[in-house]
Design goal:
Helix content: 55-70%
Oligomer: single chain
Largest sheet: 2 strands, antiparallel
CATH topology: Helix Hairpins
CATH architecture: Orthogonal Bundle
Order of helices and strands: HHHHEE
Radius of gyration: 16 Å
CATH class: Mainly Alpha
Mean pLDDT: 88
Low-confidence stretches: 84-89
Number of helices: 4
Shape: globular
CATH superfamily: DnaJ domain
Structural class: mainly alpha
Length: about 90
């Protein structure tokens, strides 16, 4: 699962304004019209745009956060930083 916060380079607690600023900063660099000589720029721009579309919409952002937490729990076997989540150790 993609980490949209990492893609935009913002913290999980980022405000809507911080998310917007991060998107526009990256879009100026990777927009296909600006980076015509960079074949990877188009792919990066689409990822940046996808992340922005989710994180800039409160409902989508909340749904994404829940799904991302489920993904983390499933792929870390219920541990975070090698520490068990709940129960006795």
């Amino acid at each position: 699962m993609k980490d949209y916060y990492k893609i935009l380079g913002v913290k999980r607690t980022a405000s809507p304004l911080e998310i917007k600023q991060a998107f526009y900063s990256l879009a100026k660099i990777y927009h296909p019209d600006v980076s015509r000589n960079n074949p990877i720029a188009k792919e990066i721009f689409y990822e940046i745009n996808e992340a922005y579309q989710v994180l800039s919409n409160l409902e989508k952002r909340l749904k994404y956060s829940v799904e991302y937490q489920k993904y983390l729990m499933k792929n870390t076997n219920g541990t975070i930083n090698n520490k068990s989540r709940g129960g006795r150790t």
